[in-house]
Amino acid sequence: MLTDREREVYDFVRAYTHRHGVPPKLREIGAHLGVASRGTVHRYLRAIEAAGLIAITPDRARGVRLVSKATVRTVLPVLGRIAAGLPIEAIPDETEIDLSEFFMGPNRFVLRVDGESMIEAGILHGDMVIVESRSSARNGEIVVALIDNQEATLKTFLRNPDGSITLRPANRSMTPMRFAAERVAIQGVVVGQMRSYR
């Protein structure tokens, strides 16, 4: 099991590697964490390596390698179904769900949600969304959009008949944002979501 901080490091290493094609350097990981000590970063990486998620090659600037998902399985038992409407008889099940297959895939990364613009889509502040890296999206998809190469936001994507793009929040108290198409760069599309109640 990883600590929250170790999971943050692992998520950053995965996202950086998928986005840039190479793993980050220790100082880049430290800058992301706000940590100046390379020793502290190295300690996090060693813990992640011990969990079997990465391999470290000593004395290399970019010596962190993601372990193939085929070698790592995170499995939980599926014990049955539960009614969210009328009660139903509890029926035991004996299957398992492989979380690595459920959430992981090529060009995917995780972002922690900061804000309440998507609460009516069930995405709350503090949730983690799994994003598939893409440069285009279909109407109605929830996207990570970069505006003017400066600010990233999580919104529902809509292409208007005149070619402009509307980024629509899922919160009635917030106003949709409309931009010329050249001002918006799609970074990825949300394909999953995680939330902890602890």
Give a quick summary of the entry.
The chain has helices at 4-20, 26-33, 38-50, 99-103, and strands at 54-56, 64-66, 75-80, 92-98, 108-112, 128-133, 142-147, 151-159, 165-168, 177-179, 184-194. The protein has 198 residues and is α+β, with helices and mostly antiparallel strands. The two termini are 15 Å apart.
Textual characterization of the structure:
With 198 residues, the chain is α+β, with helices and mostly antiparallel strands. It folds into 2 domains: 4-69, Arc Repressor Mutant, subunit A; 108-194, Umud Fragment, subunit A (Ribbon). It is 22% helix and 32% strand. It has 4 helices and 11 strands; from the N terminus they run αααββββαβββββββ. A 7-stranded antiparallel β-sheet has the order 5-6-11-7-8-9-10. Strands 1-2 form a two-stranded antiparallel ribbon. It has a two-stranded antiparallel sheet with strand order 3-4. A hairpin with a 5-residue loop joins strand 8 and strand 9. It is globular and about 55 Å long. The protein starts with a helix and ends with a strand.
CATH superfamily of the largest domain: Umud Fragment, subunit A
> Reading side by side through the largest sheet, how are the strands ordered?
5-6-11-7-8-9-10
Number of strands: 11
Any low-confidence stretches, pLDDT <50, length ≥5? none
Question: Can you tell me the CATH architecture of the largest domain?
Answer: Ribbon
* CATH overall fold name of the largest domain: Umud Fragment, subunit A
Query: Could you tell me how far the N terminus lies from the C terminus, measured between alpha carbons in angstroms?
Result: 15 Å
Describe the sheet with the most strands: 7 strands, antiparallel
**String of helices and strands:** HHHEEEEHEEEEEEE
The total number of structural domains is 2
